[in-house]
Amino acid sequence: MKRIFLPVLLIVITSCADLAKFAKEIDPNRPLTQTEVVNGLKQALIIGADSAATELSATNGYYLDQLVKITLPPEASVVTDNISKLPGGKELVNDVVLRINRSAEEAAKEAAPVFARAVSDMTIRDGFEILRGEKNAATQYLKEQTYGELYNLYQPKIKNSLNKKIVGKLSTNDSWNKLTGQWNRIAGSFVGKVADLQTVETDLDRYLTEKALDGLFLKLALEEEKIRNNPRERVTQLLKRVFGQS
Q1: Which residue in 172, 152, 162 sits closest to 107, CA to CA?
Q2: What is the pTM of this model?
Q3: What digits encode the pLDDT tens for the residues 59-106?
Q4: Contacts (Cβ under 8 Å, ≥6 apart) of 99
Q5: Domain locations in the chain?
Q6: 42 contacts: CB under 8 Å, gap ≥ 6
């Protein structure tokens, strides 16, 4: 009996230890480990970034979403008002806006890998700061880590749209530079200064690239908000653990 009892006892003890370990692993109230925090934040960032990039990279992802649609700057009225006076001019202006948004949608297809590389570099300290930070802390982290690379990704595509010839062998950029140049000469003259006219100094492709990125990070912030505030958006057990205790 003793020979039989000892192995059985060892099996029972081992099984109890395993059960205790399993119970501890599924206990939602146990403290979060550093690894869980970092891996949970990485999951959240990857899921949110992928969702934002996928949504914006779809046809009309920018163009038909009034939250992120890219429009010409207010100063562009000096350009668009003149072009719109030409036959078919209004359609041309609309086409410019459409093509700019199409360029942003194309660039968004390449945004997810940029975000993924930034996520892979997240440290334990970064993870806890994000978890305990503002409601958009994860978005701000990604913005700090990726903005320059994303700008270089978006800007050439936006610029190509602006350089495409549209009317009279002039591109949007040509028209912008010509008309704002004329306006600035008037505004900078003695008469213009007396009339308190303001010059237009907007760099068009820079402005539009920044607007495109504003839209991307706005969408990312909305995805982050869903994960933080809506339990249904926490699609993995790890996300439920991390954000359930944040």
Answers
A1: 152
A2: 0.76
A3: 999 999 999 999 988 877 766 776 667 677 778 778 888 888 999 999
A4: 161, 164
A5: 32-76+93-170+206-244
A6: 119, 120, 122, 127
